[in-house]
Amino acid sequence: MTDTTVRPAGTAADTATTAIGPGAPVLAFDVGGTTIKAAYVDADGVPGTILRTPSPAFGPSSAVAVVDAVAELAGRLTPPGAAPRALGLTLPGIVDDETGFATYSENLGWRDVDFAALCRSRLALPVAIGHDVRSGGTAEMELGAGRGHRTAVVVVLGTGVSAAVFVDGRPVVARGYAGEIGHAVVIPRGEACVCGNQGCLEAVSSAAAVARRYSRMSGREVAGAREVVEAMAAGDTIAAAVWDTAVEGLALGLSHVASLIQPEVIVLGGGLAEAGDHLFGPLRARLASLLTYVPVPPLVKARAGENAGLLGSALLARRALDRTDDRSTDDRGTHHR
């Protein structure tokens, strides 16, 4: 493997490497569209050095390449004398956490891959497979802004829009399709979306959509949503109009979520959430105006940080190991009766 970068946990750029608590030592992997992040998490729950390596090239062979990279990094991550007991692997796209089957990855190009079987054939450790937003959501629920709540929604507002839904303390998976709120239509016949529809939440309220729409309307190219927020704060009326549309779309989408499951809290993360009061203030007001029958859930900013997916992978690995240990105990009890 080439171009691997190493960063010690706890540096300024890795402030999210919070301890997950005592338990079995595990390996954690977070596969993104451009980078794979990996860490060994010790028995105290503290992540060690985080290794980063480029994600494989787009295409059908990328799934095998990911598992090959995981196998190589696993050996490099494990300290001398250490014995990790399980491995957590977080993947992008449509992923069924319960079966380990990945239907599709827009960024890496695989389709219909049984990652559970692939990992069993190539890795010696038990493997727990998760979806990137649900893994990050798991970290938020156990370590971050969702802690203490049982029914919550964690929404990531970045290049796209996706959510992790938790009901009675458990993630809703629905064969990997739960939480795809980014492709719910909030403005009929609105902006074109990459999925082929029009007016999807992702096409209106993602950080990428805000920057793209402002660039088109103003004739001034901007690199991201932060510049749009800064322009709005300086009195730019085009920026204000773009922002208002994004807030309106997000409020509509969240109003449906609130009406359907009545979350105790809605956690917002990703680039757009960094706008702070510019987002949360008007969004709270608009959401309250739309919800006349059900209570308005609190809106809070995500706190698990940029490595939430990695922490979630470690938590998933421990849970899978607990289930394996429970089954082994049950089998021994049955055998002795």
UniProtKB/TrEMBL annotation:
Transmembrane segments: none
Source organism, top-level taxon: Bacteria
InterPro entries named in the record: ATPase_NBD, ROK
Entry similarity comment: Belongs to the ROK (NagC/XylR) family.
PANTHER family noted in UniProt: BIFUNCTIONAL UDP-N-ACETYLGLUCOSAMINE 2-EPIMERASE_N-ACETYLMANNOSAMINE KINASE (PTHR18964:SF149), ROK (REPRESSOR, ORF, KINASE) FAMILY (PTHR18964)
Descriptive protein name: Glucokinase
Species for this entry: Cellulomonas pakistanensis
